[in-house]
Amino acid sequence: MIISPSFRPFWSLTLGCLLGVCAARAEDIVDSPMYRDPDLPKPRLVKIFPDRCVPLWLQALERPEADFRTKAALTIAEAREAGMIGLEVTIPALVRELERTDQHPSVRLAVARALVALDAKTAAPALLKACQTHSGEVRAILEPALARWKWAPAEDDWLRRIHQPGQQRDTILAFQGLAALKSEKAIPRLRELALAKEIPAAYRLEAARALGVIRTSGSEADADTLTTDLSRTGLMNRLVAVSLLRHHSSPEAIRRLQTLATDPEPTVAAIAVVRLKELDTKLIVPLLPSVLASPDAPVRAAGVETLFRHPSDSHLKLLGDELSDPHPEVRAQARRALRDLAAQVELKPLVLREGDRALAGRDWRGREQAALLFGELMHKPAAERLVAVLRDARGEAGVAAAWALRQLAVPETFPAILEYVRLYTRPGNNPDRRKISIELLDRQLAQLIQLLGTVRYRAADAVLRPLIPAQAPASYETRAAAAWALGYLHQGQPVPEVVQPLTGRVAAVVPGDVEEPRVRWMCAVALGRMKAADSLPTLEQFYPSKKPALDPVNNACGWAIEQITGRRVPAPEDIIIPQRGWFLVTID
User: Fold this and answer.
1) What is the C-alpha to C-alpha distance for residues 502 and 232, in angstroms, rounded to an integer?
2) Residue 497: C-alpha distances to residues 342, 494, 502, 522 (Å)
3) CA-CA distance, 562 to 187, in Å (whole number)?
4) Domains contained in the chain, CATH given
5) Residues 252/220, Cβ–Cβ less than 8 Å
6) Which of 14, 135, 354, 410 is the most exposed place for a label (fewest CB within 10 A)?
């Protein structure tokens, strides 16, 4: 069964999607310079599609066998989705197959999908006719496209369907189509359905949403009558009310939206808050206690944006509190707001105050965000306290502190940082017995080691050398960073005791001794930075393409050879990626 992804009831789109704050992971600003220093050239991938396949697919559409026609239509859709151009020539044949009265259902669905994939607006009359003739999956595929194109001739059919409801999916598609057209003819019936408490909830909500799109004023009285019951039994009425007001802006509507923004049901509050935010974040200011206390992350995110738009001493304190928000994106948003507000001279002391408060707080999330904030602001007075956060019970805060210390690069912290690296990169490490994951400890140590390499802290040499062998008590990111840092510590000075283990790790590709690619990559870079001529045979061996390729180890070896010999690395060439596996292609 082919179902269009556009068919999603309104109530499934609430919360995160309304405010652009979903369950996605928050941005990660903890970068690693070793992966871009040096910036190795790499080729561009270019897709190439087979020649002369479109005529074959057109021939397949003319075959009597349904499976041939189905596969041909699906292939056209998949080819367009993969980026193939020139497929518009298939539209007439696809329309012909769609209009066949004796067409097999699987062919009809595949053809419908292909026409939508091709964005075949010229075929809209045929698509509408197919929707009127065939319900179910055909409509689910085609009608969202007609709505997207705002195809006005579909209005009468959609109006008929909402007056004579049939299958729920068909009726909801009609609601969505009329909303796209902003059909004023639909207003009376949509209002009737939205207010009818005896019909299914799906109909009411979709009708209310459509009416809220079409009608941007005049629903205030209806909303008032629907919002008197704040209990769970009144939830459906409040959802309908807030949907009716979704695009209203009158003073009466604003007052009602402000009330709904504090609704105990997060779904209702989220819809109200997003409208208030669109109108003016000042409208949310009186609601901040309720908005920031909401169990819904998108609602709290709107509160954070309001605090940012209207900064004051009290609002900056609230932003500081939000650094500890349970949702990663909301707390990152609060940090970014404080960072940006620090650009205002009069506000920077208040921002630093909040960073200090969070860094000293009991919540690890606040300590993590405060560390990142101080790193972004290059606030060097925080460096000593950040060293203490390295041993935080939560590894996330420790990683953030390590990144911030790398940004600040305060010389007075280097001895303590080196001692920390030494303690945690020796057999039986984790002297504090913290329950920190190996992955987070690896990221943290890699940050600190890259700092020591960047500043050429010579005292780190003796601690980093033991991290190169395969048996070193450290994970891959830490060992890769150690190799990269050693290249800086011995830049232009190929010390044999360092060159030999680095060379051995580049060559470690045999059974029983297979090195992780990141470590081989950074070892090759270090050899080039040291100008280790003795390593040239190994570097040449693992530079098989003699030009930039997709393998970073190959590219690092080429760069190292250039540093040692002066031979320029060729400019990267495009890599052709033939798109194979299509249904019916020519054989050359």
Assistant:
1) 67
2) 48, 9, 9, 17
3) 72
4) 31-49+415-588 (1.25.10), 216-309 (1.25.10), 311-408 (1.25.10.10)
5) yes
6) 135
Q: Tokens 């994951």 appear where?
A: 437
Contact present, 194 and 226 (Cβ < 8 Å):
no
Determine the Cα–Cα distance for residues 401 and 413; give it in Å rounded to an integer.
12
User: In this structure, are residues 216 and 205 in contact, taking their beta carbons and an 8 Å threshold?
Assistant: no
Q: Which two tokens stand for residue 287?
A: 């609601």
CA–CA separation, 42 and 237 (whole Å): 58
Q: How many residues does the chain have?
A: 588
CA 42 to chain centre: 24
Does residue 343 come out as left (phi exceeding 0), alpha (psi in the -120 to 50 range) or beta? alpha
DSSP, collapsed to helix, strand or coil, labels residue 509 as strand
Q: Which own/partner pairs from 387-391 qualify as long-range (CB within 8 Å, at least 24 positions apart)?
A: 387/413, 387/416, 387/417, 387/420, 389/359, 390/417, 390/420, 390/444, 390/448, 391/420, 391/432, 391/434
Gap between the Cα atoms of 578 and 51, Å rounded: 11
Q: Is the pTM of this model over 0.90?
A: no
Cα distances (angstroms) measured from residue 268 to each of 18, 231, 236, 294:
11, 13, 9, 11
Contact yes or no for 548/572 (Cβ under 8 A): yes
Give the span between the Cα atoms of 494 and 491, in whole angstroms.
8
Give the list of residues 6+ apart from residue 486 with CB closer than 8 angstroms, or none: 453, 461, 464, 465, 468, 498, 502, 526
User: Which DSSP symbol is given to 346?
Assistant: T
Structure tokens belonging to residue 369: 């965000």
CA angle 129–135–139, rounded 5-degree value: 70
* Dihedral sign, Cα of residue 93, residue 98, residue 100, residue 105: positive
pLDDT in tens, 270-315: 999 999 999 999 999 999 999 999 999 999 999 999 999 999 999 9
Q: Are 564 and 528 in contact (CB under 8 A)?
A: yes
Burial class of 349 by CB neighbour count within 10 A (0 to 12, 13 to 18, 19+): exposed
Q: What are phi and psi of 412, to 5 degrees?
A: -65, -20
Q: Which amino acid is at 503?
A: T
Count other Cβ atoms within 10 Å, centred on residue 82: 11
Per residue in 224-275, pLDDT (tens digit) is: 999 988 787 899 999 999 999 999 999 999 999 999 999 999 999 999 999 9
Q: Judging by DSSP bridges, how do beta strands 509-510 and 513-514 pair with one another?
A: antiparallel
Report the number of secondary-structure helices (H) and strands (E) in the chain. Answer: 31, 4
533 token code pair: 């001529």
The answer for residues whose C-beta is within 8 angstroms of residue 82's C-beta and 6 or more apart is 47, 49, 579
Distances (CA, A) of 54 to 76, 113, 116: 8, 17, 18
436 contacts: CB under 8 Å, gap ≥ 6? 393, 394, 395, 398, 430
Q: For residue 586, what is the enclosing H or E element?
A: none
Chain mean position to CA 87: 31
